[in-house]
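Quick one:
INPUT:
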């Protein structure tokens, strides 16, 4: 019988090393968090720019001198428009090059990202154009939606180098910083956003939420009141102020009125029912608190500490109070009747299209202003609004929406 050839030791070692390396690579692939791919680059015909125009050549020269001294183009443009509203204008957009004047398209073709053109003859005046991009804020929004807040912060800082007055980017940066525990830095970012949009209720409310988390409750209550004053019927701001008042043990009667109004306007929001229950519990109105907590628990049985708070109020009731409460709980379990169908309104006449201006329309490169509602606890946070160039003269302009991280 022929002897079987023995495997060489080094061959066996190489095989074991190869298997070990393969297993390590497979484990790394299984445990490493997936990094989202950055949004695709826009088509070649699409261009983003910031335009500053004036019919007075002296203002254009002033802008160039301010930039030579190191001031960012965007801040120079906004400042000069505010001081010369009848002689200058500024706006930004990402658009198809076919919608731009040929001389603007030609000037942009020679610019790199962040560069500013020489004066361009336009509309019986002169213009300066900066080539910009919305890529960084699109990346940041994608990271933020996936809760990759550190990556979002990096992309937002790049966007703010190009757009130092971008309210939406400052807002999202503040939310991202707060989500990573950098609350003091988040407050500074909110303050930068409020420099350009001081009457924005979403900014005021979200800054208040961050202050509350830092133990600065009195300041938070003040800002929540300012946000609500700008939108008195917004259920988010009603809820947030009620929640802050109960945390500070202030004006609980008003807090209950605010939370009850919020619950009527947004009856499907579990955090609002929880706030109402906490206010009622703090006032010793345990029967009403049981109904509020029970409603919240029906909407989300896993809502943080809702069962604990419900049990606390139940234990505070006498047996006869519990017996009287049963019909109310049964009513709370009954879904409301469906609203009667209404006749469809007659279609409104379509407005005539406006003639297209040779200057760009206002900025539309930010993300949607509709607020995203997240869950757990009150208060609710608001989504950033689209960025727009600051107006010629600062005027209070209220604006909506909801919720949390």
């Amino acid at each position: 019988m022929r002897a079987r050839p023995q495997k060489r030791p080094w061959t066996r070692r190489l095989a074991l090393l190869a298997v070990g390396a393969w297993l390590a690579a497979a484990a790394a692939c299984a445990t490493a968090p997936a990094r989202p791919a950055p949004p695709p680059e826009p088509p070649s015909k699409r261009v983003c720019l910031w335009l500053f125009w004036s019919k007075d050549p002296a203002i254009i020269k002033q802008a160039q001198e301010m930039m030579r001294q190191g001031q960012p183009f965007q801040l120079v443009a906004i400042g000069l428009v505010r001081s010369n509203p009848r002689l200058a204008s500024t706006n930004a957009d990402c658009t198809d090059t076919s919608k731009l004047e040929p001389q603007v398209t030609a000037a942009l073709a020679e610019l790199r990202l962040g560069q500013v053109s020489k004066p361009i003859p336009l509309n019986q005046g002169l213009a300066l154009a900066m080539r910009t991009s919305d890529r960084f804020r699109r990346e940041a929004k994608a990271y933020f939606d996936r809760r990759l807040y550190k990556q979002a912060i990096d992309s937002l800082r790049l966007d703010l180098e190009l757009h130092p007055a971008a309210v939406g980017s400052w807002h999202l940066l503040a939310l991202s910083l707060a989500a990573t525990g950098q609350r003091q830095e988040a407050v500074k970012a909110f303050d930068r956003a409020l420099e350009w949009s001081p009457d924005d209720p979403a900014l005021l409310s979200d800054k208040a939420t961050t202050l509350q988390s830092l133990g600065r409750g009195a300041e938070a209550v003040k800002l929540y009141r300012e946000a609500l004053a700008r939108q008195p019927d917004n259920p988010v701001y009603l809820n947030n102020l009620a929640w802050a008042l109960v945390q500070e043990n202030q004006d609980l009667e008003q807090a209950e009125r605010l939370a009850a109004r919020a619950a009527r306007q947004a009856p499907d929001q579990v955090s609002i029912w929880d706030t109402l229950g906490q206010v009622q519990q703090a006032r010793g109105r345990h029967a009403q608190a049981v109904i509020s907590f029970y409603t919240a628990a029906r909407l989300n049985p896993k809502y943080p500490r809702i069962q604990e708070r419900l049990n606390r109020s139940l234990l505070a009731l006498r047996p006869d109070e519990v017996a009287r409460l049963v019909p109310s709980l049964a009513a709370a379990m009954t879904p409301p009747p469906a609203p009667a169908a209404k006749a469809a309104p007659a279609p409104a006449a379509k407005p005539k299209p406006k003639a297209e201006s040779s200057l760009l329309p206002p900025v539309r490169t930010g993300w949607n202003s509709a607020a995203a509602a997240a869950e757990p606890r009150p208060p609710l946070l608001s989504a950033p609004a689209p960025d727009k160039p600051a107006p010629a003269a600062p005027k209070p302009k209220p604006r909506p929406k909801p919720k949390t991280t």
